[in-house]
């Protein structure tokens, strides 16, 4: 049953060598890896304008130089990450770069904040998309948490079906979004150029009385929210078709160009059309209304925008499992994140991401506003660390033209560091929990690492010295009566050793006498030892007896306890058997160094 | 940790021979077994008056003859159950009596409805007690389900601590209740006798225009709700100190006398003081206000009444586990209901009762009104069946004076049957689910019984024919590398047999070659067989290999698979190991007839 539902949702299992077919072409990679970055166009310009409006409408012209600055930062990031892709062709996310150049703890800091950030990406995108939906259909408002979690569930299932299928599913709305935004920009520019727009707007460079540097920086840092998601490509190089790094680099540049063009286009139109932010109507919506009026094109752009916000979550579904795989390979996360599922995705990572994001959505009641600052810090900390790592990388390896590369990353580092600091100083009350949570995650990574290293130490053997040794054996068979199950177990033990003892735990003298008598009558060639229990416990007298045997045999013998287990025909019948065998087994395996042999007895009706 | 909390709540484990000290004296038994019956005094008279008021105030005098009729029925029930106690000294609840005299299906019908009824008793009492509490403190109203469930939880814990402790805890409020009701009745009668009461009341026997037989019958059946709980004593005979049946009989008669006196006393006072039912003030509260005024005694009576309603649930906590024990002994319920816990109570029955009652309270949102009709039917069906059973018993065994005993039970049977029929016809819309649920429970009992009988058939051996047989043995050791764990498992297998094969499941050729080479270098004296898996599954190739081995060895050999199991030092470390061993074990034990040997490897850091 369960496995049938699984088949239906996830699809048939795939062979390991089908993995290569699962690799992404540039076209699909762009869709899968950039939906997060591209979708930020939907709110980036708006974030800048909201801050500037504090200084009044006359300040909105600053949005143009700020947008250009963001564009510059985007260019730096793209150039820098392009360098990273070629320097780290096996996947050079902030984790790898920071770890290799700045040491393991800094790498874990970068990796930990990225992991948390991916969870936040899913939570934020699902909540924001739901906000868009519930604004259009207010009667859905009471169900917003349920809707967001359903969206997460659907994304989880799509991603469990496999990377390629997810890409095919996602490519259409992503490219639709890109196309419609470009149609909007081109039409808008055309309309403006032909002189059809008559908005009263402050001139570029005109004096604004109450503008401060702090405000401009804050506007800039808010605009930088458009840059989240840029790092996704450099993490995901192993997902690309060969030649992976070249394809990845081209995809990254392509993404940068599209993102930059869309962002500056929207900013320019917003300025030319004199758009001011309105809590009820988004900036993109205002522009598209001015350009097209409330017609088909307007609704199409709104619909596709809502969809892309949902799909932004999908970037995290590619990046989170890959990063957990890398952390698991380095023994900082549980091995289970290295296992590929039926459809060759890292299913445990995908599932954990879905679960944690749903928990976040539920915990924050789907409130996008309180999630976003956390999200931005989570992005810019690893950005900065990655840039710093690349600086060290160039300084250490000194390849040709290393100085100009070093300069690129230095500029990038200083910029991203500044933005991080601006975030911390302007929004500390929202993000303080990062500074508690991040060290905890790092500590957990370290503890896990230590456990794996310790385990490996304990398990290592010297091939030439450590050989199998042959010892004697004592078998104990707990019996509760004389049945076919007991016959079975004793036959098995007797086949392996002459040293077999049956153990009976009796609660009152009458029972015990009857059992001894019947045993003598049966005479199976095995001695029966009776233990008396004054309580109703079976485990405790057995443990005491085992300790006596251990003491007698010292280390010369293996001690094996043979436990019969009923296998009922229907699962519900399990409840009908006392399962004291299960109790004994669980207790002994955890507490004693003895071997436990389970002899199944399959009931056939 | 868990076990410490358990100790704190439940107390230290007790020795089996302490059981006799756990038996109940008459004094404690009366408290434990009659709180349900006695508490009905709190609402019995009121139920009669509510129905009569439909015909107007002039009809209230009928409450006196009806109360006398209920008293008569009580006398019949007490006499009848007293006969049952001596006829069935090992516990003669409706289940036993009906099973022995009317056949197993009828017995199961009686037993099933009693079990359901006990669950309802707990749910109804907890809800009713909570109603009393939230009426007094309206701000608690939003938490009424939580309060009811907390009360159930507390009762469950008290009962897990053991029968005697529960009795000590419960005796005080029960006797307080009895004493305060008698104080009320005596004071009330005295006040009336001294001519201090001047209520205008309809005379006994005065004509009432619109009274109907149906109404009188309905009032009578409502009054019979005061009789629920009377059967508890006859079920619980094994809980009494020796001589159990005499003590039980005396307790039953004592309970009948107290209940009868309190019931008729309250009914008389209600009539004399001209009390009419009021949805906001209970009849008992009105009487006690008239007698004492709103002083200390008034509040004491109200408080003790609320408490007794909570404790009424406790009767079910004695009766349910005992009845499940009997049904389990007869193989109609799972064996686990026969296991005595640390404190010698049938803890599984106690826990299940608590859980199911909580579920009922939650499902009905603590609505007492919709639970009560189900509850009443659940009582009168087994009453009737038990009386019928006793009739057959006397007719078959014909002891001295059997005819008069037969007559007692016949009268009882006809009365209880009538009441059952009145319930069905007047309240069918509330109780129809009983006629769906009861057959389902009976069916479940039958299925369980068949399973146990089948199992016993399959397990039975002939002592003189079936002896242990000695066979050959093949050991398979799945290995995933060369570690101390593998060394351990192979040493163990080699100690028992020369026929040991190591099985390696490889996913790609490079790995496989490396493993084969390393194995040759190690040379542990055991052949390595490599299975190639095109999927990531370990279980499937292993199963295929086992099937090959089975086919080769036919039935001449035991096949044993040796599975190493990491035992980590801290529980959370378990998540760090893939536990594919657990997966293999679970799958194999359920699907294949091969022996599974778990070799524990205890990690010490």
TrEMBL record, chains A, B:
Main location: membrane
Protein name: Amino acid transporter
Transmembrane feature ranges: 48-81, 102-123, 143-160, 167-190, 210-230, 251-273, 296-323, 344-366, 372-394, 406-425, 431-448
Protein location: Membrane
Pfam family, one: AA_permease_2
Keywords, ordered alphabetically: Membrane, Transmembrane, Transmembrane helix
InterPro entries according to UniProt: AA/rel_permease1 (IPR002293), APC_K+_Transporter (IPR053153)
Highest taxon in the source lineage: Bacteria
Membrane topology term: Multi-pass membrane protein
């Amino acid at each position: 049953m369960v496995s049938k539902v699984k088949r239906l949702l996830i699809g048939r299992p795939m062979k390991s060598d089908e993995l290569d077919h699962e690799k992404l072409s540039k076209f699909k990679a762009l869709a899968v890896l950039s939906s997060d970055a591209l979708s930020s166009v939907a709110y980036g310009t708006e974030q800048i304008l909201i801050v500037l409006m504090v200084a009044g409408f006359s300040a909105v012209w600053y949005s143009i130089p700020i947008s250009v600055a963001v564009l510059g930062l985007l260019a730096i990031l793209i150039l820098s990450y392009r360098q990273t892709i070629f320097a780290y062709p096996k996947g050079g996310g902030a984790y790898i770069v920071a770890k290799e150049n700045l040491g393991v703890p800094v790498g874990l800091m970068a990796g930990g904040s990225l992991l948390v950030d991916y969870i936040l990406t899913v939570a934020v995108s699902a909540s924001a998309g739901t906000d868009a939906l519930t604004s259009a259909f207010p009667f859905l408002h009471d169900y917003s948490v349920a809707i967001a979690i359903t969206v997460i569930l659907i994304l989880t299932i799509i991603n469990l079906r496999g990377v390629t299928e997810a890409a095919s599913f996602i490519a259409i709305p992503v490219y639709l979004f890109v196309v419609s935004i470009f149609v909007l920009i081109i039409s808008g520019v055309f309309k403006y150029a032909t002189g059809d727009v008559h908005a009263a707007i402050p001139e570029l460079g005109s004096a604004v009385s109450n503008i401060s540097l702090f405000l401009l920086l804050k506007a800039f840092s808010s605009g930088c929210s458009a840059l989240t998601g840029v790092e996704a490509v450099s993490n995901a190089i192993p997902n690309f078709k060969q030649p992976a790094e070249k394809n990845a680099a081209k995809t990254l540049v392509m993404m940068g160009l599209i993102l930059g063009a869309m962002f500056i286009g929207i900013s320019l139109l917003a300025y030319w059309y004199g758009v001011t932010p309105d809590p009820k109507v988004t900036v993109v919506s205002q522009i598209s209304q001015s350009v097209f009026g409330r017609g088909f094109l307007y609704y199409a752009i709104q619909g596709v925008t809502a969809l892309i916000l949902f799909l932004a979550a999908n970037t995290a579904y590619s990046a989170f499992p890959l990063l957990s795989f890398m952390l698991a390979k380095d023994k900082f996360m549980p091995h289970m994140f290295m296992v590929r599922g039926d459809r060759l995705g890292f299913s445990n990572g995908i599932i954990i991401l879905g679960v944690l994001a749903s928990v976040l959505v539920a915990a924050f009641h789907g409130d996008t506003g309180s999630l976003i600052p956390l999200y931005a810090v989570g992005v810019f900390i690893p950005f900065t660390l990655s840039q710093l790592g690349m600086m060290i990388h160039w300084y250490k390896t000194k390849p040709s033209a290393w100085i100009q590369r070093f300069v690129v990353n230095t500029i990038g580092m200083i910029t991203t560091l500044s933005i991080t600091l601006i975030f911390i100083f302007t929004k500390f009350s929202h993000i303080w929990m990062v500074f508690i949570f991040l060290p905890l995650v790092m500590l957990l990574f370290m503890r896990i690492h230590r456990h794996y290293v310790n385990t490996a130490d304990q398990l290592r053997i010297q091939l030439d010295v450590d050989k199998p040794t042959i010892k004697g054996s004592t078998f104990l068979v707990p019996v509760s009566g004389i049945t076919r199950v007991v016959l079975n177990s004793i036959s098995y033990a007797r086949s392996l050793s002459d040293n077999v003892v049956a153990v009976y735990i009796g609660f009152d003298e009458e029972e015990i006498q009857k059992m001894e008598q019947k045993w003598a009558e049966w005479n199976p060639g095995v001695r029966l030892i009776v233990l008396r229990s004054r309580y109703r416990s079976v485990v405790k007298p057995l443990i005491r007896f085992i300790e006596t045997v251990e003491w007698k045999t010292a280390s010369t013998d293996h001690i094996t306890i043979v436990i019969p287990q009923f296998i009922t025909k229907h699962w519900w019948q399990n409840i009908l058997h006392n399962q004291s065998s299960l109790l004994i087994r669980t207790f002994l395996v955890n507490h004693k160094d003895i071997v436990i042999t389970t002899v199944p007895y399959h009931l056939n009706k």
